[in-house]
Amino acid sequence: MTVNTQPVTESPDDPRAFGLPLVDAHSLPAELRTLVSRVHDLVDAVANTEVDTDTLAETAATVEGLTDRLNVARRQIGAMVRRELGDGTTMVGTITNIVEGETNPAAPQLFLDRTDEGLRAEVTLNTIYQGPPGLVHGGWIAAMLDQAVGSVSAVETSPGLTANLEIDYRRPTPLFTPLEITSWVERVEGRKVFVAGRIRAHGQVTAEATALMIRVEADG
Ligand SMILES: CCCCCCCC(=O)SCCNC(=O)CCNC(=O)[C@H](O)C(C)(C)COP(=O)(O)OP(=O)(O)OC[C@H]1O[C@@H](n2cnc3c(N)ncnc32)[C@H](O)[C@@H]1OP(=O)(O)O
């Protein structure tokens, strides 16, 4: 299934205008959030385990059974979640978004919140996101910055798609270290939103991004 980027109603900021289901983040059951967190830990455990083969085989069978149990009821692709930001405004994203999706155990759960300048998040990454030894994978750095600049464009103007993204990797970005991610809008020209973002570790910039977002709704 692909998602049509053309709105079908006059309310382009509401994903229901695109025929996509929408849930409020606060309505997600605590049990689901707990499951997501447990499976996130499971992925890390699997990636790093050195247990014996009997234990591996037994665990694989158990996990297969759990997967079958969950697959009896699946969400529609493109299902959206609306979350409230610190200043009372809301932000909408796909619920399985690989960077911040509430229901995605593979996501680092990057929770961006509003600042005077734009958006800001703090996240600490484990070895699931490893590229070079002890360091964050460059593609994940790009993914987090893409999310940060895309989200700031959405909350400050309206939702769009990344047309162009440039990353400068200034210093290695370490695992197991609090990372500060910030993003802001530089200027808007009709449907074109020029945005920028930055990752800092220990106060030092490790990566910077500039991007062009194209708003998906008709201007005006
Ligand atoms: C809350 C949400 C957070 C989301 C965070 C994550 C964001 C993402 O990762 S989005 C996924 C990755 N991006 C994509 O898949 C997008 C794929 N590309 C496309 O669909 C299209 O190229 C799209 C929609 C970006 C633009 O297409 P279209 O709407 O036809 O616009 P188009 O007429 O080509 O271009 C509009 C303007 O942008 C310019 N432009 C388009 N692409 C580029 C580019 N790569 N570089 C520079 N300028 C560009 C054009 O020159 C044009 O400028 P002007 O109006 O001055 O003539």
From TrEMBL:
Its EC number is 3.1.2.2. Pfam families: 4HBT (PF03061). SUPFAM superfamilies: Thioesterase/thiol ester dehydrase-isomerase. Residues 134-205 form the Thioesterase domain. It comes from the Bacteria. It is found in: Cell projection, Ruffle membrane; Cytoplasm; Membrane. It catalyses: octanoyl-CoA + H2O = octanoate + CoA + H(+); (5Z,8Z,11Z,14Z)-eicosatetraenoyl-CoA + H2O = (5Z,8Z,11Z,14Z)-eicosatetraenoate + CoA + H(+); hexadecanoyl-CoA + H2O = hexadecanoate + CoA + H(+); decanoyl-CoA + H2O = decanoate + CoA + H(+). Signal peptide: none annotated. It is a peripheral membrane protein. The keyword Cytoplasm applies. InterPro entries: HotDog_dom_sf (IPR029069), THEM4/THEM5_acyl-CoA_thioest (IPR052365), Thioestr_dom (IPR006683). Keywords: Apoptosis, Cell membrane, Cell projection, Cytoplasm, Fatty acid metabolism, Hydrolase, Lipid metabolism, Membrane, Transit peptide. The keyword Lipid metabolism applies. Belongs to the THEM4/THEM5 thioesterase family. This is Acyl-coenzyme A thioesterase THEM4. It comes from Nocardiopsis terrae.
